[in-house]
Amino acid sequence: xxxxxxxxxxxxxxxxxxxxxxxxxxxxxxxxxxxxxxxxxxxxxxxxxxxxxxxxxxxxxxxxxxxxxxxxxxxxxxxxxxxxxxxxxxxxxxxxxxxxxxxxxxxxxxxxxxxxxxxxxxxxxxxxxxxxxxxxxxxxxxxxxxxxxxxxxxxxxxxxxxxxxxxxxxxxxxxxxxxxxxxxxxxxxxxxxxxxxxxxxxxxxxxxxxxxxxxxxxxxxxxxxxxxxxxxxxxxxxxxxxxxxxxxxxxxxxxxxxxxxxxxxxxxxxxxxxxxxxxxxxxxxxxxxxxxxxxxxxxxxxxxxxxxxxxxxxxxxxxxxxxxxxxxxxxxxxxxxxxxxxxxxxxxxxxxxxxxxxxxxxxxxxxxxxxxxxxxxxxxxxxxxxxxxxxxxxxxxxxxxxxxxxxxxxxxxxxxxxxxxxxxxxxxxxxxxxxxxxxxxxxxxxxxxxxxxxxxxxxxxxxxxxxxxxxxxxxxxxxxxxxxxxxxxxxxxxxxxxxxxxxxxxxxxxxxxxxxxxxxxxxxxxxxxxxxxxxxxxxxxxx
Length: 543
Ligand code: G16
Prior knowledge:
By secondary structure, this protein is α/β, with parallel strands linked by helices. It has a 7-stranded mixed β-sheet, with helices on both faces. A 7-stranded antiparallel β-sheet has the order 20-21-24-25-26-19-27. It has a 5-stranded mixed β-sheet with strand order 11-10-12-13-14, sandwiched between helices. Strand 15, helix 11 (327-335) and strand 16 form a beta-alpha-beta unit. The chain starts with a strand and ends with a strand. Helix 2 (33-43) crosses helix 5 and helix 10 (294-304) packs parallel to helix 11. The protein contains 18 helices and 27 strands.
């Protein structure tokens, strides 16, 4: 088969953000756009000749089109084996697992994660490297540099591959394998968790509701929760992946997973409610009448992980992104293991996991994961919760109460100001950055600033420095405000304001989060001039 060279030229902004390249579907539909990006990825990928590449996506609109493009480009670039999830479907953690299991060179994940889908929605491409994790900054920078001078991409002329038929075909001597998206992942979960203990708990009356948000986790959750663990049919809600996610926003937060939240706060609540996002790497956990903040979930899972077979030997360390609350730090201290603070984005955990310096990682944005793959993993977190509940024979609310009365409580909330004019958002951040030196000692209401900085990270494994990762304003007693601009939005800019207050175990651990954080919320506006810069008096999303 003839390899064709299609002349091309750099165009459009193809700079990968926090989590790959993410743009409106219409941007990806432009001729050469996706092709330029995929070719740029392959141009900076070593060892591709005869190597294996994994491909799959969250099933959103345009997924099948780009998979076909990617298969042709991969064949033309000399890969020897292409593994594709049936129907073009693979969750992000499942891709990570397949890369590792098959010693692939890397993987393409077609997803804009928690962003909305459909013809007017978002699309995205993430590239993961041979350890199964998101490409680190040095790779994404190289990809971006290549997109700026690309002049051609390679393809082959071949009919579309039947993505729905399992099995192997040979195209121009290259093996294209359509694989079951769920089987290997489910097997990995069985190897980590005590399915018998969970099955017993289910038989004994443990109930749950899982909202797959019409996104990729539907088939995974049905197989694992209903078929293997014995939860009754209809435990998995919105379980069929749809190209537009049923016109919902597949972000499992308190706004978009409102139905689940209302169920869990009402009289019909099952014992545990959970949800995952577009590509299956995030998780939301809610107990009966008790929402578990993702930062708390990380800390609670870390404190109990040793009860579960996969982590019975204990944890090597914990890592959390900087804006994630310090709840996990207190667990690490009690376990006498290190806790690392990294910039936002899963790619920063990869080196620590590869070097075996940490076992569990998490982000405040509902991402939790471990060394079983190199991605955050929504269903894994749900199964870890289920396994812990089954062993401890305790409710979610009692486990939380028990945790806070041992470690104290980090009250936490995130305010998002979305679709703001980029110049205004950057103006706010620049002014705040310029005032950092004068902030220590300043009082905002009852709160006095102790320290303020712009977070900079030095990777302890390779020494890479990542500057300008968010502004931290620290107050006495462990209270904190963090400001940063999102790297995943596709419309204007998004300002995220993270607010946290620590209350020791003997303090007020059963307060209302909004009341406990009221002074900090006022201080955030006072020190950054949110209303003055953005003209907004309230955030769009509170989570
Ligand atoms: C957001 C979250 C980050 C997360 C990133 C990617 O980034 O704040 O914690 O790592 O999304 O998440 P996903 O892989 O689910 O798309 P940002 O830059 O918008 O804050």
